[in-house]
Design brief:
alpha/beta, 16 strands, 24% strand, 376 residues, globular, 10 helices
Length: 376
């Protein structure tokens, strides 16, 4: 298939004013100017714009069922504050109608997984938004281990009189489990056979820096704790939300830890969000910190990812960097840039065709392709 006579936005190089994208077998085979367009079955787009499929780097799509209440609430196993052995793929419901809303808005890949009620919530997965069988939708699983700092674990367990009810206890639980995982790994490396422990086994790749540690952290002091723990255990860390990141951007930048900001469209509904500002992402980007933008679905409906990016532009992010934050930069931070995030030969044929700029409200998605198959 060839999509031609379109304005191409590859995201890993400058736009092509009049060009084409060719794909076959679910992979991109060629991208270029019209004079290099190969012969073959083609669809003339008449000047429309083509972007790589949008990537939501942090959400809970499929984990909290749309309009079904407790029966579909599978994102927080709040009976135990430490559950690293839980796998998002065992909860995700690909039949949830929000997947179709994601596709219709051009979101073709998401990182989805457990919520933030637990100190260690479990394993996130990177998945495509088209399909009926989760195992056939996986881009990478596990893609990250979810850790949560601050208000949410405290609120979950304080009513029961269980730990943690303070930030000290939250951090202590994380350290305890990571130390245990280190010893578990050392015993394995010595040729011993420790009794199988599902929790520690799940944390070994985190200790080995094979699996990123995604830290839910809104407040500046929680961001500092995430950095402290990441340095102590030499983790491959990502800060998720970073609502007060703008207050410490100059301190955070030298640490070399990327962030996933959002939800952008939100009210200050809890104490941690007291310093929520639309300009947060702009401050982080301006400081030189790699940043992606997320919806945190269902906190913000997943289909509003392009709108969230547009709002960051109004608050100071350049349009180019805002688009990167929902395409290539998001894929890089998610560890899946070898598959998605740009219109690059060899990557998955995930494409969005629009009649205008995706950062403009009046623009409409005309077509969406996932793995070369048209899904809208």
């Amino acid at each position: 298939m060839i999509l031609k006579n379109a304005r191409i936005f590859p995201m890993d190089r400058p736009p092509i004013p009049e060009g084409f994208v060719a794909f076959e077998g679910g992979k991109i085979t060629a991208v270029g100017a019209m004079e290099a367009c190969p012969a073959g079955e083609a669809l003339d787009l008449g000047g429309a714009q083509i972007y790589p499929g949008f990537v939501d780097a942090h959400c809970h799509l499929g984990m909290f069922g749309d309009s079904v209440g407790f029966e579909g609430a599978d994102g927080n196993e709040s009976t135990d504050p430490v559950t690293p052995h839980l796998r998002a793929i065992d909860s995700i419901d690909p039949m949830d109608r929000c997947f179709s809303e994601a596709r219709e808005a051009g979101i073709t890949t998401v990182l989805t997984g457990p919520g933030s009620s637990n100190v260690i919530g479990g394993q996130f997965a990177a998945i495509k938004t088209a399909g009926r069988w989760i195992d056939r939708m996986i881009v990478k699983a596990p893609a990250a281990m979810k850790f949560a700092l601050g208000e949410n674990p405290k609120k979950t367990y304080q009513g029961r009189g269980e730990t943690p009810v303070t930030r000290m206890a939250t951090a202590a639980l994380i350290r305890e489990e990571l130390r245990k995982a280190q010893e578990y790994l050392r015993r394995q490396e010595r040729g011993e056979e420790p009794d199988y422990d599902a929790k520690l086994d799940a944390l070994v790749p985190v200790i080995q820096k094979k699996l990123p540690a995604h830290f839910h952290a809104h407040k500046a002091n929680d961001i500092a704790t995430a950095v402290r723990i990441a340095k102590e255990f030499q983790l491959d860390a990502v800060i998720v939300h970073a609502t007060e990141g703008h207050l410490v951007a100059d301190i955070l930048e030298p640490e070399g830890i990327p962030v996933i900001t959002g939800p952008v469209i939100n009210d200050r509904s809890k104490p941690e969000l007291r310093h929520l500002e639309q300009e947060n992402t702009a401050a982080l980007v301006e400081a030189g910190i790699p940043a992606a933008i997320c919806t945190d679905h269902p906190e913000n409906p997943v289909q509003y990812l392009p709108l969230a990016a547009a709002l960051t532009v109004r608050a100071g992010v350049t349009p180019e960097k805002a688009l990167l934050a929902i395409t290539l930069r998001a894929a890089e931070i998610a560890g899946i840039a070898d598959r998605v995030g740009s219109l690059t030969v060899g990557k998955d044929a995930d494409l969005v065709v629009l009649d205008g700029d995706p950062l403009e409200m009046q623009s409409r998605v005309q077509m969406v392709f996932i793995d070369g198959r048209r899904v809208k």
